[in-house]
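Provenance

Sequences were taken from public entries as deposited. Structures were produced by running a predictor on each sequence independently, with no templates supplied. The record for Fe2OG dioxygenase domain-containing protein from Populus trichocarpa is shown for reference.
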Amino acid sequence: MWAIHFLANSSMNKQRYLVLVINHGVPENLLSSILDGCKGFFDLPEEEKQEFKGNHVLDPIRSGTSCNVSVEKAFYWRDFLKVFVHPVFYSPTKPAGLSEISLEYSQRVREVARGLLKGISESLGLEGSYIDKAQNLEQGKQIFVGNLYPTCPQPELAMGLPPHSDHGLLTLLIYNGIGGLQIQHEGKWVNVCALPNSFLVNTGDHLEILSNGRYKSVLHRAMVNNKATRISIAMAHGPSLDSVVSPAPELLVSSKGNEPAAYAGMKYKDYLEIQQSNKLDGKSCLDRVRIPAV
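Predicted structure for Fe2OG dioxygenase domain-containing protein:
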């Protein structure tokens, strides 16, 4: 049976910011194998990784680096691998075995995500299958994101990823035991430490939109250190690319009267392209669809 812990929440608004899931049913050896497989990709010679570079944010496989040896100002210190794994499965052909492991891992994690979304639907007073059907999750976009944060000689001048929120509905994350994830809570940056073999779950922008702000997307960042290399794997779960995401109409009508929509609708594909084509900057992409209060 699953166990869910809320690592940060607002007692006033009942908005949950970060969730830790244990007893989720994904085998421990599969979690360790996918982390090892991801490390194997980052350990490939640079010319072999270049085979999977990709050129566009919607290319099914993209890898690259933002490591920078300049110390004149803050810079980003991260290698990445981004792969679309559903509704069509893709994978780098190297290293050997990565494709098979990532396929099994993707399928198992997708089951966990859809189970969580069922519970979220019910918490909003909707049918358990509401989000699944409304966002066409059978064709939903699932994106595997592997991150490598090498040891950094001057971590005070660098950052793995700047403050941002994720696109999509939910992101499930695991890492190799080396800390670095921070979330913003009540205006302060808080270190997040997970239990072994658990999933950290970030709520994304499109869950905030669909719930009309009842659930807030998590503002988070990745820090680096000079002692150990950190590897994380984030699995993003979003609607189908053609789904237009807007507040659920059922949440805009209640016995207390009509509630104004706080966000305009936008096709998920368009939102994803805008966010991934620009520098990560807080919730700047979400602000594009936010409707100012009258």
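The CA atoms of residues 108 and 275 lie 27 Å apart.
The mean pLDDT is 90.
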